[in-house]
Here is the input.
Amino acid sequence: MKIQDLSALAVVLMLAIYGGASAQSANSEPSEEWPVVRSPNCLNPDLPLPGLSTFVDKVDGFQFKYPSALDSEGTFSFGNTRCVEFFHDEGIQLEVSLPSVFQNPVMRYNKDAFVGKIVFNQLEWVNVVDQGLERATYCTYWKHEQVCLRGSSTSQRHRLSYNLMRTMHEIESTFVFTGAADRLDAKIAAVKIGDRFKKLRVRRVVTMEMEDRDPRRSYSGSYGEIHFDGSLRLVGTMGNTGTRLSSRWDFSQDAEEGSPTRVELHLPFDPGGDQLDRIEFNNGGLIDEWLAKLPHSPYESAGEKRVSIVVKNITAFFYPGSEMGPFVTADLVSMVSAK
Here is the structure.
């Protein structure tokens, strides 16, 4: 691997690949306009404006700027919006993990990859670029949280474009962590045993720092988990997302807001989802047997049953990079048909 100063590496790469286009150094301010590259036959009146937008992740505690022409899709995936040709069969993914110490990301690349280090906003980044410019990975680390940008191409040339490369540079040069005290793991640690959330009482709180933090391995587990005492009755649909040989039942609560049968459990740090809409059952092996005893309804589609269930021993797990709320497990106590 070739370890070198990345500002010099960036200049060399851009000059060699793009025939004289210069890269910005670590200390310069972005001065180039960020245009919206439109498809010539596009009739979409809602095209994004040129310039930059700010991506804010309140759950994982960071923010950065990126070209407004891109669609973040509400996740950690950045690509073209409709009728925009800013990228060319390529995209950028963000990955958030919780290693005990900074995990050098270069091991998955070949020995000829360009590897460099650079500092932005008091954060050290390790940047890895394949020699053929097929992939690029930029990673940084702060207070047990690692964030990586991964650029890749599916085009026939398998070469990252200049727009993608400078977008990754823009993200890393404007990236800041917004404070460990505001991050999800800190808020979980503030929950106390005995706190009540609607009908449930907190029985146990497990924080990230309570986990085994072996510095020899990467830890990509949860920011923490909350265990509850009490039971809840929920009404919704039990759907089979498995195969004929192996059932996998998922429960979806009725979606109508204000419904007397809908139960919501909004924690003070709910990252944006009603966590009771996604439940994995600890005793899921019994569901096939229970469903077989329920009467068939002509209004139900194949592989789905509308049911009323009672659950207990509810646990919410909070993972980095999740914008859809926590992952929930529970014991299924009873199940009957719902009207």
Notes: Residues 6-18 form the longest helix (13 residues).
